[in-house]
Amino acid sequence: MISRTETQLAKALVEKKRIGEDALQPFLDEAAKSKEGLFALLLKQEALPEETLLLTLSEVLRVPFLGGPDLISEPGVIEKVPLKIAEYYKMAPLKIDHRKLTAAISAPFDLRTQDDIRAHLGYEIVTVLAREKDVLEAIRRFYGFAAGTIGEMMAQQTPAAAAAPAASEAAYEKIENIEQLAGDASIAKLVNQIILEAYRKRATDIHIEPYRGKVKLRYRIDGILYNSNIQPEMVRFIQPVLSRIKIMSNLNIVERRLPQDGRAIVKVEDTQLDLRVSSIPTPYGESIVIRMLPMNRVFDLDKLGLNKKQREIFETLINKPHGILFITGPTGSGKSTTLYACLNRINTDERKIITIEDPVEYEMEGATQIQVVSSIGLDFAKGLRSMLRHDPDVMMVGEVRDLETAEMAIRVALTGHLVFSTLHTNDAASGITRLVDIGIAPYMVASSVEAFIAQRLVRRICPHCKEEDTEIAPELKSRIASELGLRHQPFKVWRGRGCDKCNRTGFWGRLAIYEILLLDEGVKDLVMKKASASDIKRYAVAHGMRTLRQDGWQKVADGLTAPGEILEATPNDEEAPSASEVSDEETAAAAALARKGGGAYVPAVKNVPAGRPRSKEDGRLFMRLSQTVNVSYRIVKTPEFTEDVLRAAPPAEYSVTKNISAGGLLFIAHERLPAGAILEVKVELPGDEEAVECLAKVLRHQELGDKRLWETAVCFLDLSTAMRSRLEKYIERESAR
What we know:
- By secondary structure, this protein is α+β, with helices and mostly antiparallel strands.
- It has five domains: about 5-60, no CATH class; about 70-145, GMP Synthetase, Chain A, domain 3, CATH 3.30.300; about 145-295, 2-Layer Sandwich (Beta-Lactamase), CATH 3.30.450; about 300-580, 3-Layer(aba) Sandwich (Rossmann fold), CATH 3.40.50.300; about 600-735, Thrombin, subunit H, CATH 2.40.10.
- It contains 25 helices and 26 strands.
- Helix 8 packs antiparallel against helix 11 (about 185-200) and helix 21 packs antiparallel against helix 24.
């Protein structure tokens, strides 16, 4: 028999032309004969989408239709509605107002069902409509992860067991029946649910952490840890859960006082997962972390986030016959993934590839992989010596940690092998100083290393909820444009709104950003002179190297990630000028200055907007001021003439027409001053009695039209700290006006 509600639903569907009357009639006939209602039949046979049916039903019943994000439970409601009732009737309790309970459902309740719920709970039922998957997800969210399984396990406990202290508070010696508990069907089911939930949420790590009287379960998704809502009663089952995990990974379940590492392979849906299990002892039980690695993962150089130029550089580097390629970055920055992608690209039958790793993270067919075992003396250095006897073409060393390993890797490269390895440094240039600091001779670094590649991982904007970020601060967008040289090219900044696909985070997956430092002749010269990492970085940027921050900004401009990800993941480039802002002559002067280690290198900026000072927010070391002040100079030395032939001329007055900072100035000269010339400069600041006097070096010049005027940029060489401070205060004071 068809109810009144279903009759109204059928009429509304036909009137709104969501289904034809002839197409609907068979469903009405079947609903009249069977126990299933019209709504259930239409949904079961996929005659109409669920959301279309629910929206029509919402109009018929005059009740709201809510999306997943709108299903929010008020405090105290969950305690008054048992999980069993919520799961059985598939309703998500939202709020209680006096004696009325509002709940989300995915199909209309009949009168008998409403009477049953009223009898169990003592509340009148007010319903709102939502999709079934949203209702089930809301129940999971409200009551906690694996709440049903934990509830069943609690029901199976005897009264004495239920009154016993939590497992995490029990003494270490009480280990009887651990294997029996760990093998229990409910415990196995709970562990399987933990792993399955992690897989479905795209987690890379599972953290199970016992504390006093409670347990915390966290998943690392796209590099960020997220708490999983679990029932408080799980604390009573934490010990058998941990024992079950230890049995799966062939660990000693009796030993709880020492750290242990193990491995297990499980199948989830169509994917095999390699689980790396690590346990450490804590005062309230063992804390376990499970790293989840897909065994059938495909490593593709084209999917790392490289742009066209970077891909070409990678292709050139990995096809070299010999040398070392270092990938640098902190733990968890994706170095191993990049190395595997490089090896996969050159993994052919013609090449012998051997790797030594700690641990072997991924299995690669065609490569001989060695696992470091420190307990028996098999370390990186010993493994490297043995690898040479196996006639390799390409070798991969998981990490260079000490002088012995570094020396071996470099000597292997010098004997005609291609070597890949990693270092833990903040940027590419620091990789050079790290090798020198641990004892490698500079000439060996210069002659063996082909490149240092720094990388970071940033979250990728979710493609399902991507939208333009109209709330971004104008200063930040201007900074991005400035550092990329996009001042006159409009671009958009994007963000993820947050949706069901990305767990409301706005991000889906990660991509890498890179800083590639090639060891050309100039860099090798600086290495031989033991230049600092900052000097090497300045030189490299002036010669076109894109820093991590700049590569990140490019990913922002391309709509791949958000500015906050770049600011958090990369160091500031305030000492390194953008290559787009540096002329060829300025580049040469910068390199010479870096090699000599003298002075502060602050290049002049092209196209500085009038009246707008530069600041540290623009990625500059010193704030800049666009103001006209008097300046005079005298040539002390030039690279073109010796001092004895310089014309003795009195200082002349000139005007600063572009900008001035505590690091240098940009002014108009009536003669061509060659790059590299040394000047005695005197700057008269309005309102200040004492002029600023110091030596300065010409960085670049540019002829202006046909008036025989040259725009000249200089940097201060020997400006005293007190004088620099006074100049900075003057610029800040004038900028504030």
